[in-house]
Amino acid sequence: MNIGEKELESLCIGSEITGSGGGGSTYPVKMVLKYYLENGKNPTFMKLKDVPDSSLVLAVAYIGSPMIMDERLPQGNNLLSSIKTLENSIGQKTSAIIPLESGGVNSLIPLIAGINSSTPVIDADGMGRAFPEISMTTFSFNGVSVAPLTVSDDYGNVVVAEELNENLSDELARGIGLIFGGGAWLTAYPMTGGEVKKFAIEGTVSRNIEIGDVFSLPIQAEDKIKKLRSRFRARLIGEGYVREIFRYREGKFAKGDLYIEFEDGRFIKISFQNEYMLIRENKKVIASVPEIISLLDTHTLQPIDTENVSADDEVTVLTIPPPSELMTPKALKKIGPQAFGYEI
């Protein structure tokens, strides 16, 4: 798989769809990657099956407020310090990098890390979409420890956690991110290639590009939806207007509910916690996490995230089935609706 400007554009669109309303805007990181591509620096990709069993694989991600990147664009040295420090702690050089999640900005961050460390990026990830906590991965579900991990900032500061309970991993990493100015760079889940091949969700980078390719086609919006339904088993919930939004903060989550009136007179309620989590119609749940729920601008089909959706927006509501790895009983215990406090 090669990434040129066309593929990068598609990857950004597809990653915002699989962000399910979260994960942050890909635009700032896209600009950095465009600069690299224009200067002949391209990421190298590796298929999951080609990862050597005994090799060291590290997951990388950005943690914190995505809006921070509007002012502080990710540079290669920021990520390198996190990766190199963890390599030194383990005593082994990284053979491949894997995205922590394949939704939003963290679909792109590993490409910058790969370019600057001359390390291939695996076409796979640990979430198959965006989730709000770093422990919500197929790696964690299958007993892989998130630690040792490193968190770095833009000024050479790096924190190493050699041992860490997974229930504290998100609190610790985000807390350090706040100290570092609101955002930081995470390297975690050191694994062997054998473990990655057992537990990663395969092909999620290329899947996002394929989703974005559909949106880039010079055809009518309704025909793009038809192709998504055919290729990715997407489900069109309806088209209409956002009538009301209620937002509140609870702990570390930006939560809320929004109400949409469809053109055929139906009403739905969408609940969100960083990402869109649940759709109810007449109090009946018709879609729920880990299903990927997306709100699109009806005219442009651009994804609208939970932070920017507004009353009177004209939206198309679409869902895409999650990877099968997210539908197992042990996965649903961690990332099903009940894990986020919803009773269904």
Report on the structure:
This protein is an alpha+beta fold. It folds into 2 domains: 5-202, CV3147-like fold, CATH 3.40.1610; 227-340, no CATH class. Helices cover 31% and strands 29% of the residues. The chain has helices at residues 5-18, 27-38, 76-90, 109-117, 138-141, 166-179, 193-199, 204-216, 221-232, 329-335; strands at residues 45-46, 56-64, 94-99, 121-122, 124-125, 149-152, 158-161, 183-192, 201-202, 235-250, 253-262, 267-273, 275-281, 284-288, 292-297, 314-320. A hairpin with a 1-residue loop joins strand 12 (267-273) and strand 13. Helix 1 (5-18) packs across helix 8 (204-216) and helix 2 (27-38) runs parallel beside helix 4. The protein is globular. The mean pLDDT is 93.
Give a concise summary.
This protein is of the alpha+beta class.
Number of strands: 16
Number of domains: 2
Main pleated-sheet profile:
7 strands, antiparallel
State the CATH superfamily name of the largest domain.
CV3147-like domain
Q: Strand-residue fraction?
A: 25-35%
Q: What's the architecture of the largest domain in CATH terms?
A: 3-Layer(aba) Sandwich
Order of helices and strands: HHEEHEHEEHEEHEHEHHEEEEEEEH
Query: Mean pLDDT across all residues, rounded?
Result: 93
| CATH fold assignment of the largest domain | CV3147-like fold
Q: Helix/strand/pairing class, anyone?
A: alpha+beta
Distance between the termini: 41 Å
